[in-house]
Write a structure and sequence with these properties.
This protein has one domain: Ferritin, core subunit, four-helix bundle (Ferritin, Up-down Bundle). It is elongated and about 50 Å long. The protein is mainly α and 142 residues long. The longest helix is centred in the first third of the chain and has 30 residues. It is built from 4 helices and no strands. The protein binds fe (ii) ion (2 copies). The site of one fe (ii) ion has 6 residues, from helix 3 and helix 4. One fe (ii) ion binds next to helix 1 and helix 2.
Length: 142
């Protein structure tokens, strides 16, 4: 199966984003536990697991088209000094994800690559959900 190289670029960029998100949420979960906030630690850990699921689905697509998954250098996790800082960094991460997937879906559709477009659109919908989840955590945090 031959896939447009720029679509492969979007899939790889998306994978790098997901691996960064796993790292950030997992690191924040560890920090929240150190702060004694077990409830927040649990929520952040579940976010990390969801992002891991996204990474896995992107890898399935990459491997199906014959490309070995390779996330780029991961940026440092943004931890913050307070729950507020942490969640603000997470909101930025999720908004970046939404932008990335919107562009990726548009590209895959232009290339008439239905399988990639469907996968990317499904993940886009979940990232939009993540923005809402982070917003409700921020509200709960006051
Ligand atoms: Fe994700
Ligand atoms: Fe996300």
């Amino acid at each position: 199966m031959s896939v447009d190289p720029r679509t492969l670029g979007w899939l790889s960029r998306a994978l790098s984003h997901e691996m960064s998100a796993v790292q950030q949420y997992l690191a924040q979960s560890v920090l929240a536990r150190l702060w004694g906030d077990e409830a927040l630690a649990g929520k952040l850990r579940s976010e990390a697991v969801e992002e891991l699921g996204h990474a896995e689905r992107l890898m399935e697509r990459l491997i199906a088209v014959g490309v070995a998954p390779s996330a780029g250098n991961l940026p440092p996790s943004r931890l913050g000094r307070s729950v507020d800082d942490m969640l603000a960094a997470d909101r930025e991460l999720e908004v970046e994800a939404v932008r990335l997937y919107q562009e990726a879906v548009a590209h895959a559709r232009r290339m008439r690559d239905g399988d990639s477009a469907t996968l990317l659109a499904e993940i886009l919908a979940e990232e939009m959900q993540h923005v809402q989840e982070i917003d409700s955590l921020r509200k709960a945090n006051g």
